[in-house]
């Protein structure tokens, strides 16, 4: 069998690293598209021992010419679009950049594929943030959309562009509507990693206070290593489609903190509600956790849980790591890093 080639945009990110590892293990030639910068952001690929096994090429999601050239040069069988501004919080500060990379970026990629290599299969990293206000309760692929952030708006533009390129031009392009997924490689700007990294530092003698937004916010959190398998499975289907990828369970930020604290050996007691909530170290009485309005978002999605039964039925996909195992994995990994002179990517 001839070796397949996969092109991954955003290969230096959390999902890019797990996907690269998985595709190399499956026997693919993997080409990763990276933004040109003065230093290459390789720690995640290094940590999964895949940096030496992928080819890296320069591409920017804002630059149509570089996308066309790269597709011509690489000739991928499969393209995984994971590149772009991925933080909901940051999208309120950088709405235009988010729209350019996470919305228009997908359209540029599909237009390039349509012109240069229409037989290539594409995966678009869509997001549960497209449901937003309409997402109360259990949501699946037929849910209405009402995004609540510039990020969600950009992802909804990309979602509909995918559907349109499928219907209008017959491209094999699938939307993976992914709920939050985390790992020890999650960026520090995301609340889960901020919690595990800060608590690990406190457990190792640090004196900081972990400041958070609304502790009652609930999310459907899964493991990134599981979610990249769903991405791959979508591109192996005869027909492209839209799939929700989720665990089907939600937990609050507070529950995440409690489990992470336990995993690093801290004993925290919560008192107060809302902005007055505090996490106190039972042993010393010191306040370790506080709440600040500055971490609240201007608008939040409704609490929702993903129904991934279509992915289960059609892709034979199910998450393998539950919430407790995920939080423990992240907290323990950060505890190991806490004592070392090592990048906190
Ligand atoms: P991530 O860790 O933030 O990675 C984002 C990647 O995009 C990085 O490799 C980054 O490169 C690259 N990038 C940013 N701007 C770019 C540009 N202008 N041109 C080319 N590349 C650019 O995100 P992730 O968690 O792996 O998520 C992967 C994709 O899934 C994203 O599209 C995200 O929005 C989507 N998604 C994620 C989740 C989740 O919970 N993780 C849920 C739903 C959807 P640098 O290394 O140079 O910064």
Sheet with most strands: strand arrangement: 3-2-1-4-5-7-12
- How much helix, percentage-wise, in residues? 25-40%
What is the strand tally?
A: 17
Main sheet attributes: strand count, strand direction, barrel closure: 7 strands, parallel
Give a brief description.
This protein is of the alpha/beta class and 345 residues long. The chain has helices at 14-25, 43-47, 64-74, 88-93, 95-116, 150-169, 191-203, 224-235, 253-263, 309-315, 323-338; strands spanning 5-9, 29-34, 55-58, 78-81, 121-127, 137-139, 172-178, 181-182, 210-212, 218-219, 222-223, 242-245, 251-252, 268-271, 278-281, 287-291, 304-306.
Topology:
Layout: E1 5-9, H1 14-25, E2 29-34, H2 43-47, E3 55-58, H3 64-74, E4 78-81, H4 88-93, H5 95-116, E5 121-127, E6 137-139, H6 150-169, E7 172-178, E8 181-182, H7 191-203, E9 210-212, E10 218-219, E11 222-223, H8 224-235, E12 242-245, E13 251-252, H9 253-263, E14 268-271, E15 278-281, E16 287-291, E17 304-306, H10 309-315, H11 323-338
Parallel strand pairs: 1-2, 1-4, 2-3, 4-5, 5-7, 6-17, 7-12, 8-11, 9-16
Antiparallel strand pairs: 10-13, 14-15, 15-16
Helix pairs in contact: 1-8, 3-5, 5-6, 7-9, 7-11, 9-11
The protein binds NADP nicotinamide-adenine-dinucleotide phosphate (NAP).
NADP nicotinamide-adenine-dinucleotide phosphate (NAP) binds near residues 12, 13, 61, 101 and 180.
